[in-house]
Each structure stands twice: as C-alpha cells, then as structure tokens.
UniProtKB/TrEMBL annotation:
The keyword Repeat does not apply. Residues 362-372 have a biased composition (Basic and acidic residues). Keywords: Dioxygenase, Iron, Metal-binding, Oxidoreductase. Residues 66-324 form the TauD/TfdA-like domain. Its cofactor is Fe(2+). Belongs to the TfdA dioxygenase family. It holds the Pfam family TauD. One of its GO terms (cellular component) is cytoplasm. This is Alpha-ketoglutarate-dependent sulfonate dioxygenase. It comes from Lasiosphaeria hispida. One of its GO terms (molecular function) is metal ion binding.
Amino acid sequence: MAHLEARKHISPDSGFPITLHPRFNPKIAGHVPPDSLREELVPEKDRALFADPEKKALFSVAKRVDLTESVGTVLENVQLSQLAPQQLDELALLVTERGVVFFRDQDLTTDGQVRLFEHYGTLDKHPAQKDVRHVVIRGSREDHREILKYTPWPSGDFHADTSFEINPPSYSLLRMEEHPEVGGDTAWVSTYGLYDALSDAMKRFIDGLHAIHTSRLQYDTILDLWGVGPNRPPIDSHHPAVRTHPVTGLKALHVNPGFVTGFAELKKVESDKLLDFFAYHIHSADDHAVRWKWAVGSVAMWDNRCTNHRVIPGSYEAPRRGIRTTVFGEKPYFDPESEGRLEREQRLKAEKLAVSSAETGVTKEEAAKPAADDTLTPA
C-alpha cells in the first residue's frame, strides 16, 4: 500500500490518508494508453467441441480425482507437456465441465506453456501485460480491505479474468514457479452452481438482465497501486448477467464483485442491493467452491465462462510468482432455451426413469418410492 498516492496526503485531523479524485491524482491523470480499444473478434471453434465426450485418450494416461461435487478436479500421473492434441481437446472439455483442473509436479517451461496454450486459440493480453505471451501473477500481502478505502478496485475479491473485455478470456492456465509453503492459495467457485443455487423467481428475474463489467476501477488501481501503465483505455461492457456456455450449453451466473458495478436495466440503488446479494451469494457458496494449495510446479487450468476465482491474501514473506496464459473467448451471450446444470441433471434423471418404467411396466411413481427397508419407522 506504500505505493498509493493517497499515502502522500495525510489528514492533519485523523492522521489517515486522504483519497484523491483520479483527475487530480498525477499517476492517473497523466497516463496515455498506447493502444486503442479492442474491436469484437470471432475466435476459432472451441477445442472442447472436437473432444471425445468420454475422454478416453486423456483418461488412458491420467487418473481423475474430483475434489468436490460441484467444481475442481485433479489429474494425477500425467505431464501436460506430453499430451497429444486429442488429449488436450479432451482436457478442455473436462475443464468446461468441472470449471478448474489441477496438476502437480509439472515440467512445463514458460515457452512450453505458451506453445501448449496456443493450441486453444489466440493468446490474450492483460491490460497491464507487457509480454504479449503471458502475464506474471504474484500474491497479495496487502490488507485489501484497507486498500479499498483509497483506490476503487476490489483487487482481493472474486472475479473472472478481465470479464470487462468485449471478448473475455475463455481458458486460463497458471503455472507456479515460486511459492511460500503456507499461504497464497487460490479459491474458485462454480458459476453453474451459483446459478443453480438461486430460487426460480430470482433466476427468472436475472435471466433478462445485463451486468455492467468495467475496467475503470482496475485502470486507476493499476496505475496507482501497481505503478504500471495500462495498455488500453478503460471500457464498460454490458454482458448478460446469465450467460450460456457455448460448449456445455449450460447457464452460468456472469456476475463477479471484481468487475461488475451494476445492472443496465436497474436504477442505482436497485443495482447496489442486488450486488450486495450476489456478494453474499458468491462468498457463502462453499458447496460450489474449491480451494487449491499451490506448490512449485503446480498448474491450474480453468474456464472463466463458468467460474470466478480469487487469490487468498496472506502475510507470508516468501515470494509467490506464477506465469499465466489466457486465450480469447467468444462475446458472452444468453440463449433463453438453455438450461441450468441442476435442471439438466433432473431432466436426464426423469427421462432415464421414464425409459426404465416403459421397459419394466413399473410407473415412475412406483419406481421413485423408497424400498421397505429404506423406510424409517418411529422408535
């Protein structure tokens, strides 16, 4: 926090820093981004759409271990550097289904990581990224609750990578090069699960809304706190509050505290109250979350279209350094005919039960009844 301009302006009355308007913060007011705003692009066909739904090639060389019911899978006994194109496609499909997939003890180099991720599309470039191939990710030892008083971006909160872009990233991959023994974990939450956990009335309400994703707050913070000049001017994008995943066809909540500041169709106070609810909803979703303990050589690959994530701040002193690559995704869209993950599971279960009933002559109601041994009797 020592880099914040507000630290140079201390109130004689309280002894605390004074927040400066961005127009009068010389770090922010004097910056001229070297690049222009992006135009919409149409990415290549998602590699997951080329995959074998059963993922036979991938699972022939890797052991799958699901960490929670909703999100997060570890693939054991495999090196990413050794995967063939077909196996990489199947990995992408697994990521679209499980949200995030983890690996330990990987032998990838930065060049190898870049080459691997180019299989999935055109590499994206973070607004603060100077290397066109990757961005360096470090940990946070600052008190993000304190920082938020003096710079507007909630840098410690859940987000999907640069969700404010016209074409937000689809896949991201982070490989850890340095890491403390304790601290610096990352948490992911499934946005499939977040949507499923809403009431039907709330689902109907937000299905038609547009969330305002902005880079304005991050733009100011990058300049003030990080001391790095953003490459592009700030942008606001109005994306569907519920997006349809192009691979799975499932609905996912497309709202995150890191970049969403309101809803286009709502008035200010209405938006604020809804944002307060979603902050609670996301942070209380332990049944749809996973927390990963990093080590040197660990890798995580996730899908920004169906997860939010955050690094857990800490007071560790050892360095934390990771290399992240991302690829461009499609412009978010909402298909009103799409369905939620839980809704699909229930539909498929009912269809299977109906087929079974037709074959055996047992009605769905009879098949759904518990067996006599399963019925609890009073004591």
